[in-house]
Design a protein that fits this description.
Layout lengths: L3 H9 L3 H9 L4 H18 L3 H30 L9 H10 L16 H23 L5 H26 L1
Helix pairs in contact: 2-5, 2-6, 3-4, 3-5, 4-5, 4-7, 5-6, 6-7
Length: 169
Amino acid sequence: MATLTERMLGAALLERTTYEEVERDRTATAQALGVVVLSSVAAGIGLGAGLRGLIINTVASIVLWAIWAALVYAIGTRLLPEQDTHADWGEVARTVGFAQAPGLLRVFGIVPVLGHFVRAATDVWVLIATVVAVRQALDYRSLPRALGVCLIGWVLQVVGFLVLRRTLG
């Protein structure tokens, strides 16, 4: 079994075998949570958020990770399953948690001039890793289907946040 660091590197390098290993390892949920927290802290440092911002960002990232995993699970297993799709929430949560591994590079967002580029490039990398993670977690043969699940989930999340924002004023 790979170490946390090896798994994070494999996830960042988009290695399907790493995502399959994490999917199968029911003890890796805490590791996935750790990756989400580390990525969140790196983003906060990269933005110069301060301690309060780091705490708020970290808690929000954990909640959003759980919501995202639930959305992907529901959409991928009920709305757009393939014949071989077999997954539970934990499998999805672990893989999409590890897809945040490239997010550790967001810490370099604090570098003047390069910060915006680093954050943008890292965001794209995390997006690509998430699609790979979703494909592996849901046992898809089709990359476009995994992309579709992510797109539908993203739209639902945005709509949900807009409704919540409007409701809360």
